[in-house]
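Researcher: Let's continue the batch. This sequence belongs to 6,7-dimethyl-8-ribityllumazine synthase, and it's 180 residues. Same format as the previous ones, please.
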Amino acid sequence: MAWGLSGLSLPLTMSSIKGPAPAPESFPRAEKLKIGIVHARWNKEVIDALVTGTLESLEKAGVKAEQVAIDSVPGSWELPMGTLKMIKRENVDAVVSIGCVIKGSTMHFEYICDNSLKGLMRVSLDTQVPVILGVLTALDEDQALERAGIGRKKPGHNHGLEWGTAAVEMALKEPKPETP
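Model: Same format as before. Here are the structure tokens for 6,7-dimethyl-8-ribityllumazine synthase:
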């Protein structure tokens, strides 16, 4: 069998392919979900905007405000443990873990990013509860502000708007397992 591109119409102009595909328009059963948000307290201005964006998208998806549990941890390093504790304590259907790590002049950035992100994936796989990665890893303050939708030079886009939607979509994929 030959593979080819015949029959495909490809755009003649180059456009950006970066960014999410459109999310589903509606989420039946979203009003029954309990969603958690665990956020770091470092880089508060950025975190506050991301939490607000996440809450807006949860509301738009149909999640009731009283069905959202919010907790904070000192920094992104503590997100995996804070997320695990929320899953156990709140019996949530999904968690959005929000942090912001801005690169400095030492290796601290790499260690925090690498290990906190691996930890969040481990929590998700071990608990079978979707954990949405809401950790910005920015090279400077301007990048972080733009990705929170509050940039100084250009406003950018608030990624929290996708994270809430992703939490609802993933929570509805399969029922979560019964806890012993």
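Researcher: Any comment?
Model: Helices lie at 44-61, 79-90, 108-127, 141-147, 160-171.
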